[in-house]
Design a protein that fits this description.
Order of helices and strands: HHHEEEEEE
Distance between the termini: 120 Å
Subunit structure: Homodimer.
Radius of gyration: 39 Å
Family: Belongs to the GrpE family.
Number of helices: 3
Helix content: 40-55%
Largest sheet: 3 strands, antiparallel
GO cellular component, one term: cytoplasm
GO molecular function: adenyl-nucleotide exchange factor activity; protein homodimerization activity; protein-folding chaperone binding; unfolded protein binding
Shape: elongated
Strand order of the largest sheet: 1-4-5
Protein name: Protein GrpE
Oligomer: single chain
Protein backbone atom coordinates (compact mmCIF):
# COMPACT_ATOMS: atom_id res chain seq x y z
CA UNK A 1 0.00 0.00 0.00
CA UNK A 2 2.52 2.52 -0.92
CA UNK A 3 1.36 5.81 -2.16
CA UNK A 4 2.69 7.68 -5.11
CA UNK A 5 5.23 10.41 -3.99
CA UNK A 6 3.14 13.00 -5.82
CA UNK A 7 0.12 12.03 -3.78
CA UNK A 8 2.09 12.30 -0.50
CA UNK A 9 3.08 15.87 -1.35
CA UNK A 10 -0.49 16.78 -2.15
CA UNK A 11 -1.74 15.21 1.08
CA UNK A 12 0.99 16.78 3.29
CA UNK A 13 0.95 20.21 1.69
CA UNK A 14 -0.98 21.79 4.54
CA UNK A 15 1.00 20.15 7.38
CA UNK A 16 4.18 21.51 8.97
CA UNK A 17 5.57 18.14 9.95
CA UNK A 18 3.93 18.11 13.39
CA UNK A 19 0.57 17.40 11.95
CA UNK A 20 -0.54 21.06 12.33
CA UNK A 21 -2.10 22.71 9.33
CA UNK A 22 -0.47 25.94 8.08
CA UNK A 23 -2.64 28.70 6.69
CA UNK A 24 -1.72 29.85 3.23
CA UNK A 25 -0.94 33.57 2.89
CA UNK A 26 -3.33 35.00 0.36
CA UNK A 27 -2.87 38.63 -0.78
CA UNK A 28 -5.79 40.26 -2.44
CA UNK A 29 -5.22 42.62 -5.37
CA UNK A 30 -6.28 45.56 -3.16
CA UNK A 31 -3.68 44.65 -0.53
CA UNK A 32 -1.06 44.20 -3.23
CA UNK A 33 -1.93 47.69 -4.58
CA UNK A 34 -1.67 49.18 -1.06
CA UNK A 35 1.74 47.56 -0.55
CA UNK A 36 2.91 48.88 -3.91
CA UNK A 37 1.67 52.40 -3.04
CA UNK A 38 3.44 52.26 0.33
CA UNK A 39 6.67 51.12 -1.35
CA UNK A 40 6.25 53.85 -3.97
CA UNK A 41 5.78 56.49 -1.25
CA UNK A 42 8.84 55.21 0.63
CA UNK A 43 10.98 55.28 -2.53
CA UNK A 44 9.70 58.75 -3.41
CA UNK A 45 10.59 59.97 0.11
CA UNK A 46 14.10 58.47 -0.19
CA UNK A 47 14.51 60.05 -3.62
CA UNK A 48 13.38 63.49 -2.36
CA UNK A 49 15.75 63.25 0.61
CA UNK A 50 18.63 62.28 -1.68
CA UNK A 51 17.75 65.18 -3.98
CA UNK A 52 17.68 67.60 -1.02
CA UNK A 53 21.05 66.27 0.20
CA UNK A 54 22.49 66.78 -3.28
CA UNK A 55 21.22 70.39 -3.39
CA UNK A 56 22.65 71.06 0.07
CA UNK A 57 25.96 69.55 -1.02
CA UNK A 58 26.00 71.77 -4.11
CA UNK A 59 25.27 74.89 -2.03
CA UNK A 60 27.88 73.98 0.58
CA UNK A 61 30.47 73.28 -2.11
CA UNK A 62 29.69 76.56 -3.91
CA UNK A 63 29.97 78.45 -0.60
CA UNK A 64 33.30 76.75 0.20
CA UNK A 65 34.65 77.55 -3.28
CA UNK A 66 33.52 81.19 -2.98
CA UNK A 67 35.14 81.45 0.46
CA UNK A 68 38.39 79.93 -0.81
CA UNK A 69 38.44 82.28 -3.82
CA UNK A 70 37.77 85.24 -1.53
CA UNK A 71 40.56 84.19 0.87
CA UNK A 72 42.99 83.80 -2.03
CA UNK A 73 42.02 87.22 -3.41
CA UNK A 74 42.21 88.73 0.05
CA UNK A 75 45.72 87.35 0.59
CA UNK A 76 46.86 88.69 -2.78
CA UNK A 77 45.21 92.06 -2.29
CA UNK A 78 46.54 92.39 1.27
CA UNK A 79 50.02 91.86 -0.16
CA UNK A 80 49.46 94.89 -2.43
CA UNK A 81 47.80 97.21 0.08
CA UNK A 82 51.11 98.31 1.68
CA UNK A 83 52.16 99.42 -1.82
CA UNK A 84 49.09 101.67 -1.94
CA UNK A 85 50.07 103.06 1.47
CA UNK A 86 53.64 103.75 0.33
CA UNK A 87 52.45 105.40 -2.88
CA UNK A 88 50.19 107.65 -0.80
CA UNK A 89 53.12 108.61 1.43
CA UNK A 90 55.31 109.26 -1.61
CA UNK A 91 52.55 111.41 -3.07
CA UNK A 92 52.48 113.55 0.09
CA UNK A 93 56.26 113.93 0.05
CA UNK A 94 56.29 114.89 -3.66
CA UNK A 95 53.97 117.88 -3.24
CA UNK A 96 56.88 120.30 -3.74
CA UNK A 97 57.89 118.73 -7.06
CA UNK A 98 55.04 119.11 -9.53
CA UNK A 99 56.27 116.57 -12.10
CA UNK A 100 57.13 113.94 -9.51
CA UNK A 101 53.77 114.53 -7.79
CA UNK A 102 51.94 114.18 -11.11
CA UNK A 103 53.81 110.94 -11.95
CA UNK A 104 53.11 109.35 -8.58
CA UNK A 105 49.46 110.47 -8.78
CA UNK A 106 49.15 108.66 -12.13
CA UNK A 107 50.55 105.46 -10.59
CA UNK A 108 48.19 105.78 -7.60
CA UNK A 109 45.21 106.31 -9.94
CA UNK A 110 46.16 103.28 -12.06
CA UNK A 111 46.62 101.14 -8.96
CA UNK A 112 43.28 102.22 -7.47
CA UNK A 113 41.59 101.61 -10.84
CA UNK A 114 43.05 98.08 -10.94
CA UNK A 115 41.78 97.40 -7.41
CA UNK A 116 38.39 98.80 -8.42
CA UNK A 117 38.11 96.25 -11.25
CA UNK A 118 38.19 93.58 -8.54
CA UNK A 119 35.50 95.36 -6.53
CA UNK A 120 37.99 96.71 -3.98
CA UNK A 121 37.21 100.19 -2.74
CA UNK A 122 38.50 102.35 0.11
CA UNK A 123 36.31 102.70 3.17
CA UNK A 124 35.16 106.24 3.99
CA UNK A 125 37.08 107.82 6.83
CA UNK A 126 37.99 111.51 7.29
CA UNK A 127 34.88 113.57 8.04
CA UNK A 128 32.70 110.50 8.62
CA UNK A 129 31.48 109.20 12.01
CA UNK A 130 33.73 106.58 13.58
CA UNK A 131 32.42 103.08 12.81
CA UNK A 132 34.21 100.24 14.65
CA UNK A 133 33.07 97.84 11.89
CA UNK A 134 35.32 99.57 9.32
CA UNK A 135 37.67 101.75 11.41
CA UNK A 136 40.42 100.95 13.89
CA UNK A 137 40.94 103.83 16.31
CA UNK A 138 44.56 104.67 17.05
CA UNK A 139 43.90 107.68 19.27
CA UNK A 140 41.60 110.60 20.02
CA UNK A 141 42.54 114.25 19.64
CA UNK A 142 40.66 117.45 20.27
CA UNK A 143 40.31 119.43 17.07
CA UNK A 144 38.47 122.55 15.95
CA UNK A 145 37.81 120.96 12.52
CA UNK A 146 35.50 118.07 13.46
CA UNK A 147 32.87 117.34 16.10
CA UNK A 148 33.46 114.58 18.68
CA UNK A 149 33.26 111.02 17.36
CA UNK A 150 34.17 111.92 13.76
CA UNK A 151 37.30 110.63 12.02
CA UNK A 152 39.77 113.52 11.99
CA UNK A 153 42.76 111.84 10.31
CA UNK A 154 43.52 108.64 8.43
CA UNK A 155 46.84 106.94 9.13
CA UNK A 156 46.24 103.94 6.90
CA UNK A 157 43.53 103.54 4.28
CA UNK A 158 40.98 100.80 4.83
CA UNK A 159 39.58 98.68 2.01
CA UNK A 160 36.59 96.46 1.42
CA UNK A 161 35.51 94.16 -1.36
CA UNK A 162 31.76 94.20 -1.62
CA UNK A 163 30.41 93.63 1.90
CA UNK A 164 33.63 92.09 3.20
CA UNK A 165 36.25 94.19 4.93
CA UNK A 166 39.77 93.50 3.68
CA UNK A 167 41.45 95.88 6.11
CA UNK A 168 40.02 98.47 8.52
CA UNK A 169 41.07 102.09 8.16
CA UNK A 170 43.46 103.08 10.96
CA UNK A 171 42.23 106.46 12.11
CA UNK A 172 42.41 109.25 14.66
CA UNK A 173 39.05 110.32 16.10
CA UNK A 174 37.98 113.78 17.18
CA UNK A 175 37.81 113.70 20.99
CA UNK A 176 35.17 115.01 23.41
CA UNK A 177 36.78 118.47 23.53
CA UNK A 178 36.50 118.96 19.75
CA UNK A 179 34.58 122.02 18.65
CA UNK A 180 34.22 121.51 14.87
CA UNK A 181 30.99 121.56 12.87
CA UNK A 182 29.12 118.51 11.67
CA UNK A 183 31.13 115.94 9.67
CA UNK A 184 30.17 114.91 6.12
CA UNK A 185 28.70 111.61 7.23
CA UNK A 186 26.57 112.99 10.06
CA UNK A 187 22.90 113.77 9.74
CA UNK A 188 21.65 117.27 10.47
Amino acid sequence: MSQDPQEEKADGAGENGNGAVEAELVITPEERAELAEAEKAELKDKWLRALAELENYKKRTRREIDDNVFRAQQNLLNAFLPTVDNLGRALELARGNEQLHKGIQMVVNDFMSALGRFGVEPVPSVGHPFDPAIHEALQQIDTPEFPPGVVAREWEKGFRQGDRLLRPARVVIAGPGSTGGKGEGQAS
